[in-house]
Design a protein that fits this description.
4 domains, 7-stranded parallel β-sheet, 19 helices, Rossmann fold, GIY-YIG endonuclease
């Protein structure tokens, strides 16, 4: 194919040809286009640079993918319009990775490259290239050879795991060691990751590490500075701002640093001689990219490890079904502590809904803070240790209902859920924001309201009354605490916002378990256990007085996994059930979401594999619907190719109604 012709310049014979990925979000244009390279750009328009080209009558951005002597296109070619920058920002390894990710997720190469390469910042490009920071004693530079230094001398924390020292030795030797890591309670996971990355750098190779949020990034940043020395790594995050993000990206692309850490923005970071990719807490939904083609950081990093023959480390307090699949297929080895070590490091964990507790406290079945939880908190505070209370919902009363008939209170204007922002605030709609001061129940005409769901701020208010004189803090989306001092404190946190306590929490209370376990989600149990283990891991060991109380029935499977601190058992059980039912990751599944007519149009154009099962439709947001397509994992490539080709047919026909195609989406229903 060729770009738009230019009438002001005639092509000359023998000019080199540039193959360009045009930045157009249309599926039928997902292929390179050939352009002639003008003589004045022959030395600077190299593969990996950004260019501007004429396409379909307009000037658009593009990436120069390759230079060839002649084009396969038999028609007339036009010239590159101009070179945006001579900086080769797109590394060959990242181009190969981006193409693989686009093919896996039924997406366009241009969309993936937009995620992989941050926007250009011209002033940063003109800054002098800094010299690589000197490495500490015993740590070679990014291009140095291997050293005989034993990495386990620094990685003493890995000795708590039988396979840990061998994993570090394999990384130092440059072997593609791949592991699924289950962290012990109270573990300094950032130090363990920094030690694994340092072992990789000892072997003369680079590393990429991805975490879910800014708090985890700060912890890993500090741990790497201690392990490698200052200036030996960069942090890459979308929250840095354009200049700082592009400066960090260029440092990695130019080989100034051997290690890049960051949030999911770092999953495509270019690193010379990649030897290790790592991801912490891969079950966190923040690792899923919300922009097309919706790749997951874990899958991108595992693809990088496969393409680069690099090591991989997938870790967390819990274990996802996808990580368990890596272990069961033999792609990765398990790194876990012995049961004796786990028991020594685990806090005392107790449920409130089993028979012995109900016999002692009959109200435990309905109480939000049963006597067992109240006693654990009081004992921890008396011992001058902080207490963590995890609640699933933020706000004050995020959901209310009629006090007489228990019907959920809805907005009379948009039917959205009503909520209370404080004890004195009138009900307000969470969707349209309208205040409903004189609410009347449409079913029973009642005017009294009650709490249906209690949020973090209301919980903090109730605990403040229950424990007068004890400081109560909240940690959530609006204000995230990173650390709390030792002493008698009450901290109410939503999942993901739990702070670290000096010396560990004396007690951790896990409230409102029903709000997590009853969600209409395939991953409800897995996500619940992940959130519970994340909070419980912050408690002191049982020998130091640490206690965890979960307000739930002890017979539930996620509660059993928590009581035994056995995320591997739960993940294996979850994976086995999904195999039996035919759900991811045992199979590959794609969702097609849009209006009924648009979804039917795309599926009619798709040449699906003969093994494909089409399920649905199921209702989606607004007035749209969703169809699910399921295939065996071995046919995943055919499914993605068929959906991408069908999307190309629709864009070529200029279909007006959009359809969202997602491969292995986190939410199916």
């Amino acid at each position: 194919m060729t770009g738009t012709r230019r009438s002001d310049r005639q092509p000359a014979a023998g000019l080199p040809v540039a193959r360009v990925c045009v930045d157009m979000p249309l599926a039928h244009l997902d292929r390179p286009f050939d352009y002639l390279v003008p003589a004045e750009l022959d030395d600077t328009a190299r593969p990996g640079t950004r260019v501007r080209v004429r396409f379909a009558g307009q000037l658009v951005d593009g990436w120069l993918l390759d230079r060839v002597a002649e084009s396969d296109h038999g028609g007339r070619l036009t010239y590159l319009d101009r070179l945006v920058s001579p900086e080769p920002v797109l590394a060959p390894e990242i181009l190969r990775l981006a193409r693989a990710v686009a093919d896996r997720y039924a997406g366009n190469l241009a969309d993936v490259l937009r995620l992989a390469v941050p926007p250009r910042h011209a002033r940063v490009e003109r800054e002098p290239v800094p010299e690589p920071a000197p490495a500490p004693d015993g740590v070679p530079g990014p291009s140095a050879g291997r050293t005989p230094t034993d990495p386990t001398a620094a990685g003493t924390g890995w000795r708590d795991y039988p396979a840990g020292p061998g994993f570090l030795r394999a990384l130092t030797a440059g072997r593609p060691a791949r592991a699924v890591y289950s962290a012990l309670p109270g573990e300094d996971w950032a130090a363990r990751y920094a030690e694994a990355i340092a072992a990789t750098v000892h072997g003369g190779r680079g590393a990429v590490a991805v975490v879910a949020d800014a708090r985890d990034l700060d912890r890993l940043d500090a741990a790497l500075t201690a392990a490698l020395g200052p200036g030996r790594h960069v942090c890459l995050s979308a929250a840095l701002g354009p200049a700082r993000r592009y400066r960090a990206f260029l440092a990695a692309r130019r080989g100034t640093v051997p290690v890049v850490v960051g949030t999911r923005a770092a999953m495509f970071a270019p690193v010379d001689r990649l030897g290790l990719v790592t991801i912490w807490d891969d079950g966190d939904d923040l690792h899923a990219e919300p922009r097309a083609p919706y790749p997951h950081a874990r899958e991108v990093l595992l693809t990088r490890a496969q393409l680069a023959e690099a090591g991989a480390l997938v870790g967390g307090w819990s274990r996802s079904a996808e990580a368990q699949l890596l272990v069961e297929t033999g792609w990765a080895k398990e790194i876990a502590a012995t049961r004796e070590t786990v028991r020594a490091r685990t806090p005392a964990i107790a449920p409130t809904g089993d028979d012995p507790q109900l016999a002692r406290d009959p109200g435990a079945a309905t109480a939000r803070l049963p006597s067992l939880a109240w006693t654990a908190a009081r004992s921890a505070l008396a011992a001058e240790t902080p207490v963590l209370v995890q609640v699933p919902r933020r706000g004050y009363l995020p959901s209310i209902s009629c006090a007489d008939c228990r019907t959920p209170a809805r907005c009379p204007h948009c039917a959205g859920p009503l909520a209370l922002g404080s004890a004195q605030a009138p009900p307000a709609c969470r969707w349209c924001g309208r205040v409903v001061a004189g609410y009347t129940c449409p079913h029973c005409s009642g005017r009294r309201l009650r709490a249906a769901v209690t949020g973090a701020r209301r919980t903090a208010e109730e605990l403040g009354r229950a424990f007068p004189g004890v400081p109560v803090r909240t940690s959530g989306r609006d204000e995230v605490l990173s650390r709390v001092p030792a002493g008698a404190h009450l901290v109410v946190a939503t999942p993901g916002a739990e702070p670290v306590a000096d010396g560990g929490f004396g007690a951790v209370l896990l409230l409102d378990a029903w709000a997590l376990l009853t969600r209409a989600d395939l991953r409800a149990g897995e996500e619940t256990l992940r959130r519970w283990l994340t909070a419980a891991a912050l408690a002191r060991p049982a020998v130091a007085g640490g206690r965890v109380v979960v307000v739930a029935d002890g017979a539930l499977v996620p509660v059993q996994a928590l009581l035994r601190w056995d995320p591997a058992w739960f993940a294996a059980r979850e994976l086995a059930e999904r195999r039996e039912l035919g759900f991811p990751p045992a199979v590959r599944m794609a969702s097609v979401t849009g209006s009924a007519a648009a979804v039917a149009d795309l599926l009619d154009a798709a040449r699906l594999p003969d093994t494909a099962d089409v399920l649905g439709p199921v209702p989606a947001e607004s007035d749209r619907e969703r169809m699910l397509i399921r295939v065996p994992r071995a046919r995943a490539g055919e499914l993605a190719a068929a959906l991408h080709a069908a999307a190309g047919v629709r864009t070529a026909r200029r279909a007006t109604e959009p359809v969202r195609v997602q491969v292995d989406p986190l939410a199916l229903f």
